[in-house]
Amino acid sequence: EKGNYRHFMQKEIFEQPTVVAQTLGSYLRQSDNSVALPQFDFDISSIRRVTIVACGTSYYAGMVAKYWFEQFARVPVDIDVASEFRYREPVLEDGGLALFISQSGETADTLAALRHCKENGQTIGVVVNVPTSSMAREADLLLPTHAGPEIGVASTKAFTCQLAVLAALAAHMAVKKGLMSRAEEQEVVAHLLEAPAALNSALDHDDDIASMAHLIAPARDVLYLGRGPDYPLAMEGALKLKEISYIHAEGYASGEMKHGPIALIDEAVPVIVLAPSGPLFEKTVSNMEEVRARGGKIVLISDAEGLEQAGEGCLATIEMPRVHPLIAPLVYAIPVQLLAYHVACVKGTDVDQPRNLAKSVTVE
Ligand code: F6R
């Protein structure tokens, strides 16, 4: 079933243009570039707060979505990892949408958090890849991802499909709240529909990434930096690397580096910088200077414009297509997944079945 691929993870990375297109196809109407959600029986414009709860990679998808809900729908968003959420005493007021994100739909902590929110009067939204799962059954608003079965333990295609659904949901909420005009909605939908082609161009850099993996494989620690909606991607990149290559990695907000992690920087700690060009690019460039001044080695992932501006003197660069900021988190997922994958291959680890991990964590 792996076809021409060496691993399920690799196959699943390469499936992303197709499955993201499939997922977008069920939430966006191409005939008039509008968002079309499944039927549900509550008024989404009256939602006063969104509480997002998930674990691991699904949690990082939620972190990206927080930027979108706030930016488009101007709704306050709380987000928590499920294992913390269920044991604090979260304030759940009337008119709240509690949103659970899960590939499997069976993660024990997330499911327990869902039930807690239900008992506390929240409307339950579920973004899930397994339509027959427990979470799917308990949803008021079921938003399936159409990633198909994900076999590799490290989540890849489920993540980008979650992002696709969450972007559509945030836009839909903005439209219903009267905060997004018809023209703006058309524009957002058009940008989302550009995602599959952009994912394909990102995948074209597979060989470049494979050939630089040996530069990262010897490292004991790796830092990932990103800003804005690409900050969760830095954490996702670090999670992927640690899961399958067993290299210690941390993701930080670029601007937070000088508040501590910079102490780690030396020539043995590669720093992977995720930075599409844009208004905040200059700030990231100064963060890169701080790394360089301490002998740090940078791998810059950016578009042609960003690489032109800041690519010189980097250990390596990975070129991404120039995309609208809305779809950048989907596109930049590809190089961090591929980098983790190729580093793991260099190290010879069991990519699809990394040690100590289970595909679905159904115990607390
Ligand atoms: C990371 C990974 C895990 C899962 C987490 C949540 O590659 O696979 O961090 O994302 O266990 O699983 P789901 O999404 O099934 O709730």
Automatic annotation (TrEMBL):
Active site positions: K359
MF GO annotations: carbohydrate derivative binding; glutamine-fructose-6-phosphate transaminase (isomerizing) activity
One Gene Ontology term from the biological process aspect of the record: UDP-N-acetylglucosamine metabolic process
Superkingdom of origin: Bacteria
Keywords: Aminotransferase, Cytoplasm, Glutamine amidotransferase, Repeat, Transferase
Subcellular location: Cytoplasm
Single GO cellular component term: cytosol
Boundaries of every SIS domain copy: 40-179, 212-354
Biological role: Catalyzes the first step in hexosamine metabolism, converting fructose-6P into glucosamine-6P using glutamine as a nitrogen source.
Subunit details: Homodimer.
Protein name according to UniProt: Glutamine--fructose-6-phosphate aminotransferase [isomerizing]
Species of origin: Qipengyuania soli
Lineage summary: Bacteria, Pseudomonadati, Pseudomonadota, Alphaproteobacteria, Sphingomonadales
Range of the intact protein held here: 244 to 607 of 607
